Amino acid sequence: MFGMFKSQAPAFDLTPRNCLVASLLYCMASDGEMDQEEIGHLLSVMGPGATRQALDNALRYCRATPAEQFAAAAAPKLRHDQKLCILLNMIDSAMSDGQAEPEEQRLVMGFVQAFGISEAELEPHFRSLTAKNDRAVLDR
Fold first, then answer.
1. Cβ-based burial of 94 (10 A; exposed 0-12, middle 13-18, buried ≥19)
2. Would you tell me how many other CB atoms lie within 10 Å of the CB of residue 37?
3. What are the structural domains, with CATH classification, of the chain?
4. CA distances to 29, 33, 65, 92, 132 from 128, in Å
5. Residues of the chain with pLDDT under 50
6. How many CB atoms within 10 Å of residue 131?
7. Which residues belong to any copy of the Co-chaperone DjlA N-terminal domain (predicted)?
8. Ramachandran area for residue 117 (φ above 0: left; ψ -120 to 50: alpha; else beta)
9. Is 90:108 a contact under the CB 8 Å cutoff?
């Protein structure tokens, strides 16, 4: 009987852009805090046509759906290049505050596995993102 009150995942179309938004939300929430840099990154990838309703729908979906379940559902709907785009945006978001926290690292690696992308393929991109986000070099 109490199952009637259980939160259900709202209807959420797993389009490539929605998958990107949801992936970033999972990444942002994984370490328990949402930094300004992460929020700015999320808003920029949502694009100019983004609405508050679209963000609210994505938030409700992410709250009701475990990240692992989402990644497994999204993977077959995405092309390889779309998966790579999402993973690189997740890595960039995780590193935007200077370092990827252990929780963010675990989440990203779970998505890497679910999406079937090899670490060897990601390594050169990761090096580029590391260099991009190492703004301390500007003060040395």
1. buried
2. 16
3. 16-135 (1.10.3680)
4. 24, 25, 32, 10, 6
5. 1-6
6. 9
7. 20-122
8. beta
9. yes
